[in-house]
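Input record (one chain):
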Amino acid sequence: MNNYEYLKKYSPKSKLQENLKRLAAGEPVQYILGTTNFYGYDFYVNNSVLIPRFETEGLVEKTINYLKESNLKNPNILDIGTGSGCIAITLKKELECNVTAIDISKEALEVAKKNAKLNNVQINFINSDLFTNVTEKFAVIISNPPYVAYEDEVEDIVKDNEPAIALYADNHGIAIYERIFKEAKNYLKPQSLIALEIGAYQKKALTELVCKYFPNSKYIFHTDLANKDRYLFIFNNFV
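The corresponding structure, as predicted from the sequence alone:
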């Protein structure tokens, strides 16, 4: 089903013509309808947050699998740059865990709070620029941070509609990763996991950063369904 057919099926009839004009003008159908599905759960979205992607479902699925295979019980999890809250909320739905979700955008946090209520979960939300307002230590840090380089080509529908603050990062897209790595040790428990979504061509640069900031930790990259490097997991005394 293409976006036109999808909109005709799910749009209220009273708004159909208006919504079709918005679609023709290049607005994503998810923003028009105000809803999307992620990992089988419904989420409200607007242009203050990224539209959750299928690739990010892969990050969540792999993180769940690693945690289920580990001996960590009821881990506390920090979701950095929560956006719509899709990662934090899905982990809370799927695992016995406590979740803190942070974002620099107050508007994004309002969306995430709405989604937590929609999905009937308790999440600790904090307005924070990375770790600025974080005080505790976590067993898991997970993030789908901004990782698009400013010089990268981006589809018009993404560039023209989705929040730039959630898309782009300095230093060829890896600036936020380095900030996370540099500060994370102060917020990680001795046995911990870092789970990250990454850009498809950032493996080499991120390997260098992992070796710099976590020289004694094991790490692994995973590919997505398109066989592109998409996920990085760093294990600290993780069993």
